[in-house]
Every structure is written in structure tokens, then in C-alpha cells.
Amino acid sequence: MKAIFCLMAVTLMSLKPPAPHPTSTEILRLVNAHRRSIGLPALEGNSFISSVALQHSRDMLNGRTPFGHEGFHDRMLKIRGHLGSLHVAAENVASGPMSAREVVDGWLHSPGHRRNIEGDFRLTGIGLAAGSNGMIYFTQIFVK
Predict the structure, then answer these.
(1) I need a surface site. Which of 38, 64, 114, 119 has the fewest CB within 10 A?
(2) b/e string for 101-130 if b means 16 or more Cβ within 10 A?
(3) Residue 142: what are its φ and ψ, rounded to 5°?
(4) Chain segment 69-80, per-residue pLDDT in tens
């Protein structure tokens, strides 16, 4: 019995733990680090905008809306109804089993997404929805 326990202990110790899911806080930290590196002010996270972003990520995950920006106008109306007048708004989405670094790096290597990250925005909200298959949907909304 002791030999089996030792063998099991060695096997369990050699297993690589699953990578932790990325968090919206981690994504915001990386986005703001990039903004600061080019002399832009940090974006302020907003819980209401994050709730709207999260719902879009969940809708994409569950197939209620296709991957992309469908319904963007409705999301902005919802945010405007809560926050008041919006001068400009934008949205980045991504999907895949990625870390926060991979998502932000991917956005920074895409001219349109990079323009949003580096845009003249003040507030942001980030929502992530993860499926049991490892697929994660990411939404970041930017507003001013």
C-alpha cells in the first residue's frame, strides 16, 4: 500500500496545474500599463459598463448573439441611460482559451483594436465569459 501511495504522490506532483482564468482586473491593468507607456492617462473601470460587457460576452458564449459587435448600439443606449450623455464609445471583443496578456497583445497587434485602447476615452468596462470547453469570450467597452 505504501508503494502505491508514493507512486500516486509522484504522479500527482508531476501534473501541471490548469492555467488560471484571466480576469477583467488583469486585462485593465495591462491596458492601462500600455496607455501609460505612451503617455496616455489610465482608464477608469466602471462596474455598470462591465456588467454590460459581461452580458455581451455571455450572449456570445451561449450563442444568443454571434461573435462580434452585433447589438453594439443597444449596449451604448443602455450605458447612456445609466451614465448620461456619451461623447464617443468603442468596443473590443476576442474569443479563445487565452490569458489576459494574450488578449491584450492580440488587440494591440490589430490596428482597429489598438486605436480603441489608445483612444480618447475615460471609462471602460470588461466582461469575460468562460465555457466548460475552455473557450472564453472577452468584451471591453470604452466610453467618454
Answers:
(1) 38
(2) eebbeebeeeeebeebbeeebebbbbbbbb
(3) -120, 135
(4) 999 999 999 999
